[in-house]
Amino acid sequence: MPAVNYFDPPKRLAWACICLLLGFSSLFLRDNRSKVMILGVLLLIWMIARTLIRESPFTESGVLLSWCLPLMLFLVGLGIRREHDLTTFCRILFLGGLLQAGFMLAQRAGFDPLFGETTQGITYRPARMIGTIGFQNQAVHYLGIVSATTLIAFRGAWMRGGMLLVMLTVIAFSGARGGILAISAAIIGVTTIAIWSHASWISQRKIQFTVMMAMFACVAAGLVMAIPETQERFHHAFQEAGKHPSIGSRITMWRVAWKMLLESPWAGWGAGEYAFQYLNRLGEVHPPQMSHQTLQSTVYAREAHNDYLQFAVEFGWIGILFLFLIILTGTRLTIQEWKHAPDRSRVVLFVTIYMAVAAFISFPWQTSMAGPFAGLMLGIFWPHPLDHSPNTAQPAHAQPTWRSVLHGSLLVCGGTALVWCSLDAYLNIKIPGLLAEKKYDKAELSVPAFTHRYLALVGAVYAANGRDEDAESVLRNAQSGYQDVLLWNNLGLVFSNQGKWEQALDIYRSWMRSGLEHKIALANVAAVSEKLGLYDEAARALGRQIDLWPTGSLSEIRRLALLRYKHGDATAALDLLLLHSAIWQDGDPLAEAKMYNLIGVLYLELNQRDQALQNFHRALLLFPELNSARHNLKRLGSDPKGYYGLPPSSDP
Questions:
Q1: 265-298 CB burial, b ≥16 within 10 A, e <16
Q2: Within 10 A of 232 (CB to CB), how many other CB atoms are there?
Q3: In 53-86, where does DSSP find H-type helix?
């Protein structure tokens, strides 16, 4: 069955269903941790309100859902009854993680009964480890979060350590640096805090266990570095940080995000604005003349690969304040309840540390698996004094009005999320199916105006089938809420086919400034600028292309020289041809003759008649039938009948 995305829409739909079901059940269970519930709902309302009050509310609207789902699942998780033992629940979760880990190892070895066509085409073995999740990083984050359940599922310290080591080993085989660092930090952080907060242990015993923990960390590090692919990835990250594209690309993303944050620090821009503005913002952080290192560090990104920075960009310091208060409340409760519910507190601490580290170099909170799963886990295991107090459950009618308002707001958000996810899952299958059946007009009618990514898909098909007017209309609408290079390429092509060169040039200029697919962008700018008679811009674009990707092509050199000549810079054109003389002097006679003729024209433009005459004669000596050279000799008043020899004063 054709689909735009086989993994994210189904997972988000499942999470939205879980969110709404848990939201309804929590109405009749308990008071839902009042302070945290208030802060969480206020943050949720702020995120939605800030996004909707901007000029284009539905710009990259799917990003708002990515941010809201983890928060909503956290809030509904607070309402789940906690009086019963969670050991069985944790064992089931860990068993699921263990099966997932085994499947990922099988994929790495080349055995994949589910997605064999996909994973067998991947030569880099760690990248095959997509599990049942569909994406390597998401599968790794799932294992990292599930690892927290070992703190309740198993009682013995050695058993816990062994199971955590198993998960760490599988994650190490994936080569995912963020996951390796995150689970290592979570294990070391939780264990260290647990050791030193143990009230009955003397300092000597605490030191002994700390040394054992350090030895465990060394063994784990040795295990990680013993895997060749993983060792190579860490080598690139730490020893070649200034050169490696994965590091450079993150720095570029962070620079874009930082510029946006400085422009709107308090209220932010609204969800999805980073993805929408990213391509146009790249030109602001790139140098005027981009090098290959700059281009290698420029990738298409919908996320800043730093959830803290992107959250601040999109929701401002106001959103950060709400988030900080939630974290502060959770920290205080964790400290208070460490004695009464140490295992649950450790689970919360483990998940928090894991996601905190991973979020610094990636975007786990925005993914369709890690973010919602972590939010739900934090909500379920969130410490609270009521967990160990009698008569914790309260009937629904006993709840205050303000608490009912909070619950109602959460249910409305959950219902809206379910509607959106259902629509997205439907369009994800429906639109590709209609396009595959060549029902293009029906596909266009089926796409709501606010789902810009699907509009871009329909517009691309229109452009591929030569329906330029329809493609232009649809792609313009898509561009109002979605940006990527493929959309720019299609829109530029449509404009060019209709002779709308100015509009096409605007698109290609933006593309060129972004640095993505830079060679193609430069070629497009050069071609369209030449059509418009902007020979200087065309020459600069083509010259930059030749500098970055020299092919030794005679036609490219000749074209660039002609562009400079048409712009009125005959000296630059002449210098270019003389500089690259080795390319065309050993070519075929006709090509070489044309170059000598062009050089003669340039000398003539510079009023150097003797040099012009000499090169026209050289051209005709090589290829006597070259009419352009004969015509140029006539312009000089020379007798074309004598073209078989050079003038006596000329140096052959």
A1: eeebbbbbbbbbbbbebbbebbeeebeeebbebb
A2: 11
A3: 61-77
Distance in angstroms (rounded) separating the CA atoms of residues 255 and 277: 13
Please report which confidence band the pLDDT of residue 210 belongs to, taking 50, 70 and 90 as the band edges: confident
What's at 155, amino acid-wise?
R
Torsion of CA 127, 428, 443, 276, to 10 degrees: -70
- The token duo for 502 is 């100015």
Would you say the C-alpha torsion 148, 152, 158, 162 has a positive or negative sign? negative
Tokens of 447: 């796409």
Buried b (16+ CB within 10 A) or exposed e, 168-205: bebbbbbbbbbbbbbbbbbbbbbbebbbeeeeeeeeee
Stretch (H or E) spanning 91? helix 87-109
Q: What band does 649 get if pLDDT is binned at 50, 70 and 90? A: very low
Average predicted confidence (pLDDT) for the chain: 88
Residue bearing tokens 């010259």? 543
Task: Supply the pLDDT for residue 241.
Answer: 58
pLDDT at residue number 643: 40
- In this structure, of 26-35, 58-67, 174-183, 570-579, the range with the lowest mean pLDDT score is 26-35
- In whole angstroms, give the CA distance from residue 619 to residue 407: 87
Q: Both tokens of residue 559? A: 């074209």
Phi and psi for 636 in degrees, rounded to 5? -85, -5
Alpha helices (H) in 197-299, listed in sequence order: 203-225, 228-239, 245-263, 273-285, 292-296
**Residue-by-residue DSSP string for 319-350:** HHHHHHHHHHHHHHHHHHHTTTSHHHHHHHHH
| Residue with token string 């009230």 | 199
Q: What is the pLDDT of residues 402-449, one digit of tens each?
A: 677 778 888 899 999 999 999 999 999 999 999 999 999 999 999 999
Residue 644 in this model has a pLDDT that exceeds 50: no
Can you say whether the dihedral through the CA atoms of 524, 529, 531, 536 is positive or negative? negative
Q: CA-CA distance, 568 to 566, in Å (whole number)?
A: 5
What's the CA gap between 513 and 529, in Å, rounded?
15
Q: Is 415 exposed, middle or buried (CB count within 10 Å of its CB: 0-12, 13-18, 19+)?
A: middle
Exposure string over 599-615, b if 16+ CB within 10 A, otherwise e? bbbbbbbeebeebbbbb
DSSP state letters, 597-626 = HHHHHHHHHTT-HHHHHHHHHHHHHH-TT-
pLDDT tens-digit map of 551-591? 888 889 999 999 999 999 999 999 999 988 888 777 688 88
The pair of three-digit structure tokens given for residue 565, joined into one six-digit string = 């000549």
Q: Is 481 exposed, middle or buried (0-12, 13-18, 19+ CB in 10 A)?
A: buried
Q: How much is the pLDDT for 646?
A: 37
What's the pLDDT tens digit per position in 317-330? 999 999 999 999 88
Backbone angles phi, psi at 299, to 5 degrees: -130, 160
Do 482 and 60 form a contact (C-beta atoms < 8 A)? Answer: yes
pLDDT tens readout for residues 456-474:
999 999 999 999 999 999 9
- Structure-token pair, residue 124: 């880099």
Q: What is the DSSP string of 449-482?
A: TT-HHHHHHHHHHHHHTT-HHHHHHHHHHHHTT-
Q: What is the pLDDT of residue 648?
A: 36
Alpha carbon dihedral 138, 143, 146, 151, in 10-degree steps, equals -150
Residue 640 has pLDDT above 70, yes or no: no
CA distance 557 to 528: 18
Residue labelled with tokens 């140029």: 632
